Amino acid sequence: MAKVTDMVLWDKPGEKVLLLGNQAIARGALEANIAVYAAYPGTPSSELTDTMAIVAKKAGVYMEYSTNEKVAFETALAAAWSGLRAMTAMKHVGLNVAADTFLSSVGMGVEGGFVIMVADDPSMWSSQNEQDTRVYGKFANVPVLEPSSPHEAKEMTEYAFELSEKFKHFVILRTTTRTSHARGDVVLGELPEEIKQGKRKFGKFNKDPNRFVDVPANARKFHPIILEKIEKIREEFNNMPFNWIEGDESAKVGIIAPGLAYAYVKEALHWLGVENVKVLKLGTPFPVPYGLLEKFMDGLEKVLIVEELEPVVEEQVKTWAYDRGLRIPIHGKDLVPRVYEMTTRRAVTAIAKFLGIDVPLDYGELDAKYNKALEIVPPRPPSLCPACPHRNSFYAIKKATRARGIYPSDIGCYTLGLLPPLNAVDTTVAMGGSIGIAHGLEIAQHGSMSEEQRKKEKKIIVATIGDSTFYHTGLPALANAIYNRSNILIVVLDNLVTAMTGDQPNPSTGQTPHGMGKRIPIEDVAKAMGADFVEVVDPYDTKKTYEVMKKALEVEGVSVVVSRQVCALYKIGQMRRRGEKWPIYYVDEDACTGCKVCINAYGCPAIYWDEERKQARIEPSMCWGCGGCAQICPFGAFKPVEEGEE
Amino acid sequence: MKVKEYNIVIAGVGGQGVLTAANILGWAALHAGYKVRMGEVHGMSQRFGSVVSYVRFGEEVYGSMVPEGKGDVILGFEPVEALRYINHLRQGGMVVVNTKPIVPVQVSMGKARYPEIDEIKKIVEEDFKAKWIGFNAEELAIKAGHVVTTNTVLIGALTQIPEFPLDAEHVREVIRLSVPPKAVDINMKAFDLGIEAAKEILGL
Ligand code: SF4
Ligand code: SF4
What we know:
The structure holds two protein chains of two kinds.
Chain A: H1 4-8, E1 16-20, H2 21-31, E2 36-39, H3 46-59, E3 62-65, H4 69-81, E4 86-91, H5 92-105, E5 114-120, H6 133-140, E6 144-145, H7 150-167, E7 171-176, H8 177-180, E8 182-187, H9 193-197, H10 209-212, H11 216-236, E9 244-247, E10 253-258, H12 261-272, E11 277-282, H13 290-297, E12 302-305, H14 312-324, E13 330-331, H15 344-355, H16 363-374, H17 389-400, H18 433-446, H19 451-457, E14 462-466, H20 467-483, E15 489-494, E16 511-512, E17 515-516, H21 522-529, E18 533-537, H22 542-554, E19 559-564, H23 568-578, E20 585-587, H24 597-602, E21 607-610, E22 615-618, H25 628-632, E23 638-640
Parallel strand pairs in A: 2-3, 2-4, 4-5, 5-7, 6-7, 10-11, 10-12, 12-13, 14-15, 15-19, 18-19
Antiparallel strand pairs in A: 1-8, 9-11, 16-17, 20-23, 21-22
Helix pairs in contact in A: 2-3, 2-7, 4-5, 12-15, 17-22, 18-20
Chain B: E1 5-13, H1 18-31, E2 35-39, E3 50-58, E4 71-76, H2 79-84, E5 89-98, H3 105-108, H4 117-127, E6 131-135, H5 137-144, H6 150-158, H7 168-178, H8 184-202
Parallel strand pairs in B: 1-4, 4-5, 5-6
Antiparallel strand pairs in B: 1-3, 2-3
Helix pairs in contact in B: 1-7, 5-6, 5-8, 6-8, 7-8
The structure holds iron/sulfur cluster (2 copies).
């Protein structure tokens, strides 16, 4: 079992390996001889970027963690304009950030292949909304390719570059959580010589202001060109290798299955034991190739489209059928739910209903039993790690505001501060949104109050935002708040790493995957922008942190407290790798009074309640030794154990 | 003998090494010549929340998630987590589970109750007609040398269940190759302790 990142660079064509969908895409990009890769991490896309980060230098690929998706998009786009093969990757909501550049530049096209990998998250396992990127593809008239397995993801990535180059057009490679985070057997292909030798490739930008300057006179010419391209691509897709018709040719019923839905449809048909159906496997949910559709529809009496989320394929098929005067029943979202992810159960249920047959399992009975079982299952939402510095920051904020503040927060691990016992997150909208929301709340709550009234009724507003998020989209919001004389406290939870998506570096880290970049301290930025109060604290020092928060709250204007302490998960990971030990804590039974402050106000997951003795306890295998509990316990019951843990 | 399809559901708490265990089984299946599909959790849900991984292999497998009612075995790293995904188990399946609880914060706060192990076992056996192979794997891991080998103990036990399609020695080899060299010995010991525990429970 070799290291995955090694396998991604293996020069062993034909070898079968087990890869994550995202890693398979990285391999596909290398097989396609990619030259430039830029992205901002976001679940479920992150491992593609992380894999690139590790292999880039060896493969001669320029790779960067950009500060946000828009910047990443522009970096890769410019490389593609220079004739290089370039890629950017993001999660679905990341495309919203890049949307401005994306929609404005699509008409300019590219010279080198340009692939935009977007990972959607149906069911929102790790996201703030459920959006279907295929709709963006349709909106922008950019073709969308969607793989049905990790191996196909690799092959399709290579094809995406070729397609992009052929039409000088953008190509979206869309995955969902279950493709990006599925592992499957992948057969390695050939790596190009340049990648094997790690030779960095350079391009050439040929000036053409009529093309690359988006003044109205030029832009006006683009729109018809885009539409023309997309129709040509629709033609092309009639014969692309990831679209095909299979099954019983004489069947009277047909199922259309785009992307990953194909896997579920196959599984469902297999399980149902149904054979007399025709299946249209679609690797291109947009644009749907009409020629292939025509061939598929020939002789069918009814059709079902099994697709996840929005009826993107369904609408195209129905429009096409209407224009043809084809009047057969076309089912889709009437049988397949429009929200949350596809499952085999959903596919089986929809297909059984469509065919008028029984489902193979009594789901009613299963649900009844399962619901009964769930009655005794306690909830276990994710939580801030043991020793997470954010817990201390939230604890200090709550204490300094006497829990009477409003707490807008942002996107990152710290959103988990929402959960009891901290309850220190009142709003989260989108990356960088906390500062803007805090400013808006301040205007709404106090904007027109008299000085006197304000003193009496003032609601304290404390925004929390992470280091990476601060650089992602927090900067313009901070400028806005300072410029407009807001009166808010902004606590930047600086753990020196982009923790939630897997410890990627950012400007506050300074480090890049390939060595030192230039570190930008957050306090310097806040000071330069003109914040009225700026201080840095170590949240592991709970008393000092509380005092600084108190002081900051007394200041009129925008206060910025940078709460800096390295991410505990990151730190423990590093220590484990180096074989180092850390102190662990235990509860002194004589000192613990059972006041439960550690559980009801602090909430480190390593601390649990001993029902029999009515005392707190520490689960030693979970304690990461920060000493936070020892500082917040009013009776000094938490003490370090002599022996360290590995 | 090749199986058409075999489905393993691995349930636990983020940080317990669920993913590592899934990977080991996935590679063992790949080496055995099967088609493999695995589904896993990333991002925020990994932070001490409930996590589940799926390992599917056989001659024909498609999706990366084990469908409801189709799991052959649930490998539970923690007792309530095994129960949380019980809807994925088929009738007459198996539950191989570490009986050492990890108490959620909500329970400590008095906002939820942690069930008795026997209550869980009863539901598994009576409602789901499944076989329960429960033991304190953490204790055995500590005996082997380190608490982090808990997943190795569980994998060892898993290889002993009737009709398990992967060869135990084969799985052991994958573990040997995937753990750091200095951890090989304690992992091998943990694997053996898992095998013994399962044998004892199964009366082998
Ligand atoms: S990963 Fe880091 S930032 Fe996230 S909860 Fe754990 S310790 Fe905190
Ligand atoms: S020292 Fe206390 S607060 Fe820190 S990780 Fe251990 S139990 Fe949790």
